[in-house]
Write a structure and sequence with these properties.
This protein starts with a helix and ends with a helix. Helix 19 runs parallel beside helix 36. The protein is built from 46 helices and 26 strands. By secondary structure, it is an alpha+beta fold. The strands form four sheets. Strands 10, 11, 14, 15, 16, 17, 18, 19 and 20 form a nine-stranded mixed β-sheet that branches. An eight-stranded mixed β-sheet has the order 8-26-25-24-9-21-23-22, sandwiched between helices. Keywords: ATP-binding, Calcium, Calcium transport, Calmodulin-binding, Cell membrane, Coiled coil, Ion transport, Magnesium, Membrane, Metal-binding, Nucleotide-binding, Phosphoprotein, Translocase, Transmembrane, Transmembrane helix, Transport.
Amino acid sequence: FSTKATMGDLANSAVEFYPKSQRGTGASSGSEANHAGDYGVTLEELRDLMELRGADAIQKVQENYGDTEGLCQRLKSSTNEGLSGNPADLERRRQAFGQNFIPPKKPKTFLQLVWEALQDVTLIILEIAAIISLALSFYQPPAEESEACGNVSAGAEDEGEAEAGWIEGAAILLSVICVVLVTAFNDWSKEKQFRGLQSRIEQEQRFAVVRNGNVIQIPVAEMVVGDIAQVKYGDLLPADGILIQGNDLKIDESSLTGESDHVRKSADKDPMLLSGTHVMEGSGRMLVTAVGVNSQTGIIFTLLGAGEGEEEKKEKKGKQQDGTVENNQNKAKKQDGAVAMEMQPLKSAEGGEVEEREKKKASVPKKEKSVLQGKLTKLAVQIGKAGLVMSAITVIILVLYFVIETFVIQGHAWIAECTPIYVQYFVKFFIIGVTVLVVAVPEGLPLAVTISLAYSVKKMMKDNNLVRHLDACETMGNATAICSDKTGTLTTNRMTVVQAYLGDQHFREIPDPGQINPKTLDMLVNAIAVNSAYTSKIMPPDTEGGLPKQVGNKTECGLLGFVLDLKRDYAPVREQIPEESLYKVYTFNSVRKSMSTVVQLPDGSFRLYSKGASEILLKKCSTILGAGGEPRTFRPRDRDEMVKKVIEPMACEGLRTICIAYRDLPGNPEPDWDNEADIVTDLTCIAVVGIEDPVRPEVPEAIRKCQRAGITVRMVTGDNINTARAIAAKCGIIQPGDDFLCLEGKEFNRRIRNEKGEIEQERIDKIWPKLRVLARSSPTDKHTLVKGIIDSTIMEQRQVVAVTGDGTNDGPALKKADVGFAMGIAGTDVAKEASDIILTDDNFSSIVKAVMWGRNVYDSISKFLQFQLTVNVVAVIVAFTGACITQDSPLKAVQMLWVNLIMDTFASLALATEPPTEALLLRKPYGRNNPLISLTMMKNILGHGVYQLTIIFTLLFVGEKIFNIDSGRNAPLHSPPSEHYTIIFNTFVLMQLFNEINARKIHGERNVFDGIFSNPIFCSIVLGTFGVQIVIVQFGGKPFSCAPLNVEQWLWCLFVGVGELLWGQVIATVPTSHLKCLKEAGHGPGTDEITDEDLAEDEEEIDHAERELRRGQILWFRGLNRIQTQMEVVSTFKRSGSFQGAVRRRSSVLSQLHDVTNISTPTHVVLSTANATGAPGRFLSLPFSINWIVSKVFTSLKRTSTYRHSSLYTQFLSLFLQLQ
């Protein structure tokens, strides 16, 4: 009841708020009346009607419209024919009742994004420094005092030069603006792409409606009020409506009401269907009564989603409303919370605290960071810290040097008039420091990730992968296991009957109609035609000579095709028994594994037709039609023989076996239809058919690729185990001679559950590594398997699992998996909603493409990192040492910003858009804890760093001699740019450009030009950067601190740049294994660095065993403490004051402390063998006092939140274990 009330309130409050949206598309109240005249019902009435449920709703319909048929007539629609489909009529309906479209939240404007980009701390610091620099540059001290200020301002003889002091400040501001605009533009295009993706996903969703008597599929946005829509299993309802006719319809309304039980709907008891709810079973037809913002989902969306803008307006109004909306919002939120709570089973028996954490989790919707993002964030923070330290030291050294030089050595006094000049110097030093920081902080990292992901997502569309969550693409590169469906993914999902068992005869191919008894044939045709969804049909082929088109459920189409092959037609039977006249339908679901339909015969009795999985249905058969078309008894032993001789041979050939049966029921007394067990039993078997679903031709090769790439493919299917095994062998999932398991769902459950029926992780761990096929599995089994593999800790790497699914019931498994793939064609809306990637062609080989793209993203980021870090290391060291030795950074602020632009924005574009190659599939997955920067990459970074530093320092200190030019060192403030420093800058940039080509390979390959022309973006960026560099050097002048260079100097710069490529070959020759000193960097967060708060969030990541272990240790220590106290007391009495013994023992304990090896992670303590084998009773004689002190320290350490970091804690822990 409460939920009804809430929904009602929500809707009402929405009406108060949105007087405009009530009137369709903002029509005035006058035209509202006209529309009401057009249709015998207003938008208002329909909205009020949709707020009712169950009996109230039926009563209201009967009072106002007579019945649903009456409402249908008022809406000028027909229950059988639907709408006419006339565009003018559809437009009128949209005017009157609104469109089926919920306007999305407004995207951020470009200016907002600019403002966000400006929030970057380093940029703000730079802006401030630049403004101060600008302000000061306009101050000119009187000529006579400038002498007194020392040689500070000497060198600026030229008036023009002195006046150009403002240029540097202005140039910095300009380059900051550039950086901001580029960042904002990238964010904006990312947002735009994402919206494009969303709209594409929305356009993909189509729905079946009846127009002009024909069933057609239309995009959801085109549905209007008055449409007759066909609802079936797995649909996500796109609009509100009233059920006209339904078969066994069950709806999951939890998304609206928070009640997880499925609600049974029927035209006479509860006909209200709401948008946003899921059809879990059955089928039916509904009359659409509310669309878009007027539907139940729309009302809530307008309140919550779009309500953000409204909230602000409301606050301005001064809270005129009485707060009903706020209450309702809270109620709604609470319910959502409840759903979240229901869906998350408690993780362990820790009771209270877990619930607390769960609550915390439910209340904070935390988007889990992907593995890559986690590693990158951590790396960026580390680099940033290092940069901060370097820049601080740079500034301090520069300031100290200047102060000592001017005031101590030259002995000048600080004069008031000179203050601006001195301050100008300090600002210059500050700017140099900030520039070091800017170059050190790799703000290009997030950009590279975004570009790389966005680019991949765009390209993956072409490879039939529609990515719904960006990080899924990158996670896919780490996948170690794929659990795939069989039907439609590994197979073509084009079913054809190829064998049949009819009238005591096993036909190996389709029999001639003459070979079958006419009575049996009639019964078979009727059973197939009536007992299948009327939406399943066989249509003529699209092209001449092609295969007939199968529409609807593929298994049913296979059976209908069988009827056509027997030279009969199913259409006349369906015309004779239209869908409305079906008396009762038990639709197919994953529990029943069968479908049954009841029709009333002319004499008033009933006949039930049933079809389903053969081993399940045959158990319910008590008779079978013999050769003469007469039923004969069918005993269990006949059944066993049939399974052996017919079903197993069919299954071993990879056929799905379907049994078709019927039963006659008396008309008087009418059977109790709700008691399904009594009705679908005692059947008469008509036939068993073997349906072939051929393996897709490209699948075996795709699976071979996966296995080569270190990915295990498992098949999880609802089919018979023999069929599954046969198909798995055809696909190459199992190979003869391998050690593998093929289990049925029942057996799987028996093996993983303990006596109490609870699932145990250890039991799953025994099974999953060898399991390759899980047959006859329920959706729960699939979820259990996926969860078991993900939570398992027996491998050194945590498994990353991808799952494919198409059915409504696959939702939980798709959500649980690291990456969920839903089928774009056969998949239900529910499955698509739960997935991360949609396979638009339902093909397994597209998954392999996804793996390739995922690995490519990872590699692109690594390439970019390798390049970026080389630049960072070199630029920071050059600026730092240059500043310390020559009091002026060889690379000026503006030049640094240009370098920053090259390496961040352009390089991320160039390196993040490398297309993937097949070679990516030849190596094993990286795994979750592998470092981002491998040893090879570290070798490259340091190797190239050494080369570049050597060159630059050579140029800096002896460059003027080599080129025979003036030295640029120790130049006074505002002096003109020198050729010397320009050569350094130019060489530096050219080395980066050529190193960018080196960075294309990160696994130590020799040929760095391999496939370079297949990436036009890369080529154009490298050439473009080179072009801009020429312009900057030749015409940059004062703002860029550049003096034009002659051809000879340019050639030398180029020569040194090309040297990078040769040097790269030298580095590649050095084997990585010989460089023991190298360390990897950019690991995932380690266990020893997890703080208490993180622990609460990362519940899933840290395995439970480890937590249990910690808790176990504490208990163990407490127990020990007690025993020891008692032993202590006893032994003290015995010894009565042997003081020396105690002292001796104390010293031995201290010496042992030295033998304990100290490990940073508290859970693993290594004891030195020398003491581990000490006397067994040793700890009992320890003096109680030490033990007591240790335990006190231990507990106090444990209380402090940082105890995991403290090595003290570790030592105490090791000491403690020693004492044991």
